[in-house]
């Protein structure tokens, strides 16, 4: 059957920009530096690199191949590989983007608020932020429920405008401008960060060999790096399958996977170089270990300490985070839009993209409004499992994150690697990769088989276990 309604990427560069745009997001600029800060710097980096080159590469190759093979939405793509298990995997892979959007858009909205506040300081010297500590500003942003919901609406509306344009004229076009702009702004912030007095301590923390964290708690470094790798490479969330479904048979899947993984990793390391040295230089030794607060508290303190130029760097930095969050959010939204649109086309009707995008954005806004109103647990809303005192009940964000990042994603990837490796067989993937004369070398084929059959299932089992442990601990 013809897929007239679908469209295709305008060029391979356009696909790559969009795929890298999906991968590079809050996970790189916020998650990577803070997890590296908490998990021992260099040790975390090494584990991350090994996992990305093995588990990450093999699963990304599978997802791109499965999507392109079917040229259909994630659910149908998985179903075409085999009945019931395909349906389970397809739904797991759609559940995650739907849930993740609820908090991803709120975090994006906080960045819009921070950029606006820094701008106000810059333009009118109103000291909207400069007069407060980073912690106080973050509290003020969290407890302002109306502001958070309104900015979340604005953030989703921007995504709506882009994604309504379609794959080529919406997503591809925005990424082709947004991604290079993000990269340049990141370089500007790095130059400022690494030239601050005391920044070298932060660089040494990242790059000087130090294996003591392994001795202290290898499993938690492994699961933190693994969970981060998954989220950062946009795996097990339907997006790589979806974007792959719009890819032409002429393109090399191995080359594209490598480019996406290498670019995403480079941006994560660069973000570490923008954030950690500044946190060490201006916030002291423990600033880098503050965890999730790094982006909204520690960094704002860093900008405050920069004097008159602080708000300028604040504006540039938050703008770059906003760009990263938008290019990722439109990817997450597209998973759902493509699903609905292909469903309608399968019934023989012509999908109305504008209408579908509107419905998806409104439903996402409804769940995001709840997370925004909750203010990361600051506003006394009822939260599931809150009474247990464990991480998963700390806020609506944590609860939803538990279902998606904690369970659905690692479980989906674990099932997928076992299913492809041992039941469907890796040959299906190899056949799709080898379309149009893109031969896999013997070495590459052996490496892929070993990764998908052995390394990925074992790695995923540890990551799933580690995620569950993290969510069930009581914060200290
Ligand atoms: N990879 C993104 C990040 O690192 O922030 C998160 C993400 C975006 C995951 C889009 C999945 C996705 F479809």
Can you characterise this structure?
- 76% of the residues lie in helices and 0% in strands.
- It has helices spanning 12-23, 26-38, 42-70, 74-79, 83-124, 134-143, 145-163, 166-194, 199-207, 212-232, 239-245, 253-283, 298-305, 310-346, 353-374, 396-424, 427-433, 442-472.
- α5 (83-124) packs across α15, α5 (83-124) packs antiparallel against α16 (396-424) and α14 (310-346) packs across α15.
- It starts with 11 loop residues before the first helix and ends with a helix.
- The mean pLDDT is 91.
- The site of 4-fluoro-L-phenylalanine has 15 residues, from α1, α2, α10 and α14.
The biggest beta sheet, please? none
Strand content: under 5%
Number of helices: 18
Run of helices and strands: HHHHHHHHHHHHHHHHHH
Q: Roughly how much helix do the residues carry, as a percent range?
A: over 70%
Total beta strands = 0
Morphology: globular
N-to-C terminal Cα separation, in Å? 57 Å
Output the structural class.
Answer: mainly alpha
Average of per-residue pLDDT values: 91
Rg, please? 21 Å
**Bound small molecules, deduplicated:** 4-fluoro-L-phenylalanine
> Are there runs of 5+ residues with pLDDT below 50, and where?
none
């Amino acid at each position: 059957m013809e897929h007239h309604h679908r469209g295709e990427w305008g060029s391979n560069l356009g696909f790559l920009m969009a795929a890298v745009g999906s991968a590079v997001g809050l996970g790189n600029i916020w998650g990577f530096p803070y997890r590296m800060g908490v998990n021992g710097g260099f040790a975390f980096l090494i584990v991350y690199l090994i996992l990305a080159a093995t588990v990450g590469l093999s699963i990304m190759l599978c997802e791109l191949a499965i999507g392109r093979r079917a040229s259909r939405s994630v659910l149908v793509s998985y179903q075409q590989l085999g009945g019931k298990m395909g349906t389970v995997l397809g739904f797991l892979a759609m559940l995650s983007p739907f849930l993740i959007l609820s908090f991803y858009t709120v975090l994006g909205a906080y960045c819009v608020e921070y950029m606006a506040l820094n701008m106000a300081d810059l333009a009118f010297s109103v000291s909207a932020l400069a007069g407060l500590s980073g912690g106080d500003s973050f509290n003020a942003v969290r407890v302002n429920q109306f502001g958070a919901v309104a900015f979340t609406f604005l953030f989703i509306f921007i995504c709506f405008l882009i994604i309504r344009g379609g794959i080529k004229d919406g997503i591809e076009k925005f990424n082709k401008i947004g991604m290079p702009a993000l990269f340049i702004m990141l370089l500007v912030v790095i130059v400022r960060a690494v030239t601050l007095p005391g920044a070298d301590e932060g660089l040494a923390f990242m790059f000087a060999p130090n294996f003591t964290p392994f001795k202290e708690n290898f499993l938690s470094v492994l699961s933190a790096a693994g969970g981060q790798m998954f989220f950062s490479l946009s795996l097990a969330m339907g997006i790589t399958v979806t974007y792959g479904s719009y890819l032409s048979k002429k393109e090399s899947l191995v080359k594209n996977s490598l480019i996406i993984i290498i670019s995403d990793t480079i941006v994560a390391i660069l973000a570490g170089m923008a954030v950690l040295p500044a946190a060490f230089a201006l916030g002291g030794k423990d600033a880098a270990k503050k965890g999730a607060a790094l982006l909204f508290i520690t960094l704002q303190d860093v900008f405050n300490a920069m004097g008159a130029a602080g708000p300028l760097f604040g504006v540039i930095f938050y703008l770059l985070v906003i760009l990263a969050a938008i290019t990722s959010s439109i990817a997450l939204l597209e998973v759902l839009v493509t699903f609905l649109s292909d469903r309608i086309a399968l019934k023989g009707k012509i999908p109305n993209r504008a209408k579908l995008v509107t419905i998806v954005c409104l439903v996402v806004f409804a769940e995001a409004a709840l997370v925004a109103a909750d203010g990361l647990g600051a506003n006394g809303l009822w939260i599931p499992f809150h009474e247990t005192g464990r991480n998963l009940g700390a806020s609506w964000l944590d609860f939803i994150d538990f279902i998606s990042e904690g369970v659905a994603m690692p479980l989906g990837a674990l099932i997928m690697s076992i299913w492809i490796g041992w039941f469907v067989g890796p040959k299906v993937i190899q056949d799709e990769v080898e379309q149009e004369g893109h031969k896999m070398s013997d070495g590459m084929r052996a490496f892929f088989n070993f990764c998908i059959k052995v390394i990925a299932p074992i790695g995923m089992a540890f990551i799933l276990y580690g995620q569950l442990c993290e969510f069930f601990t009581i914060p200290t």
